Amino acid sequence: MEKTKMELFLELAQPDKNGISRWVDVTEFVGEYADLKFGNGADWARKESQLAKKYIVELDKSITKGNRNDRVRLNGFNNNTYSQSITADIKKNIQSRRCVILGTSKPEVDHKNGMKNDDRIMNNLNQKLSDFQPLSKAANDAKRQFCKECRKTGIRYDAKLLGYPMSYYKGDKIHDKTETGCEGCYWYDPLEFKKHLTFSK
Q1: Share of the chain above pLDDT 70, in %
Q2: 32 and 117 assigned to the same domain
Q3: Is 60 helix (H, G, I), strand (E, B) or coil?
Q4: How far apart are the first and last CA of the chain?
Q5: Structure confidence by residue, pLDDT tens digits, 45-73
Q6: Is residue 111 located within the same domain as residue 56?
Q7: Over the Cα atoms of the chain, what is R_g?
Q8: Host domain of residue 14
Q9: DSSP codes joined into one string, 40-95
Q10: N or C: which end of the chain has fewer CB atoms below 10 A?
Q11: Which of 54, 77, 100 is the last residue of a domain?
C-alpha cells in the first residue's frame, strides 16, 4: 500500500515519544521521499493538514533562497494551545506599533525568543505582551536568518557587526540552549539592548 505524505515524513523525521523530531532539510526529499518536495506551499505541512492536527509543525525559511521553506521539524504534539500562534489581543496590540528597528508601520509580530523553546510562551494561555515585539518584514527576515545560524552553530549574533560597542548585554557568544539563552542578544530585544549601551567620550 502506498504511504501517505504524513507517513513518509514521520518515517524520515523519526519523532520521539514526545512528538519532537530533528530538523529535516528539503534536500532529503529524494528517492522514496520525493513526494514530500514542497510544491504549492508545502501542502502536507500546512496548518490544516493531518500532520499539523497531530503535531506542532515548524517550518524554517531561508531568505537566501527566495524566502522559501528549506527545512521542517515536529516540536511536540498539538494540543491546540502549544504552537507558534499568538493570541489575538497581543497580535492586535503589537501590529498597532512601529518597528523597533526601522520605525515603519504595519509591522510583523515577532517572538523575541528566536529559539522558540520556552514552553510558557509557546502556550497561548500563558503568553505576555512583553514576549513579542514589532518588526518590519525586512527586520524580521534578517532576524530569522540570524536565529537560524545561531541554532545551527550555537553562536549568538554579535552586535558589534552593526557598529555597537558591545556584543551582548547579557551572556556571551555561546547560546546555552535554555529558554533564557536568547536574552542579551541584539535581536532578542533591540530596545532593551540599547538601554545597556555606554559610549566612551
Answers
A1: 91
A2: no
A3: strand
A4: 73
A5: 887 788 988 888 888 876 445 567 788 99
A6: no
A7: 18
A8: 5-77
A9: SS-GGGSTTSHHHHHEEEEEEEEGGGTTEEEEEEEEEE--SSBSS---HHHHHHHH
A10: C
A11: 77
Domain count, the chain: 2
Q: Are residues 112 and 44 in the same domain?
A: no
Return the bridge partners of 74, or none.
57
On whether the CB atoms of residues 68 and 62 are closer than 8 A, the answer is yes
Q: Residues 190, 149: one domain?
A: yes
CB within 8 Å of 119: residues ≥ 6 apart: 82, 179
* pLDDT tens digits for range 127-144: 899 999 999 999 999 999
CA 98/CA 135 separation, integer angstroms? 7
Q: Is the pLDDT of residue 9 over 90?
A: yes
Q: Are 58 and 150 in the same domain?
A: no
Residue 15 gets which letter from DSSP?
-
Predicted pLDDT of residue 47: 79
| Boundary-marking domain end, from 33, 50, 77 | 77
